[in-house]
Structure of 13191_t:CDS:1:
Amino acid sequence: SYLRIYTNGTGERKKAIQAIQVNNFETASDDLYSFHRKIARENGIQLSGWSIINKYIRKKEDFTTISDRFTISALLRDCTLILTWDLETYASQMEEFAEVLEQKNKVFMIGMTLYWKDDPKPLKQICLINVETASDPRWVTII
């Protein structure tokens, strides 16, 4: 027959194992030190590398969110409005890189996107162009 002993901490566990060993009782597991290694070995948990926890369920007793506990403005959505633009230019000599500051080079399109910070969906996309082109339904195109 077996006797299973439960303790409330490693200190009490150590005292129980010492008492068992003094009385020469046979034990199934009497690792006196490195209790975490014993648990890891018996439960197949790696002490280095990755371990996977399966079928773990924790009943949640307190359903408050972090924003209920802390009123930190950083937890709120960042309402920064972002406007980005891109200039498309061309040079009269095709082998040159078209610098906007050069008088002979021309800007032929400005693309702008307006969006909230951290939101991948733009609020508005605008294309200002000086040549006739087919419009894109995602963009407001102004010729």
Summary: The longest strand covers residues 106-116. The CA atoms of residues 50 and 106 lie 58 Å apart. The chain has two domains: 1-51, 81-142. The mean pLDDT is 78.
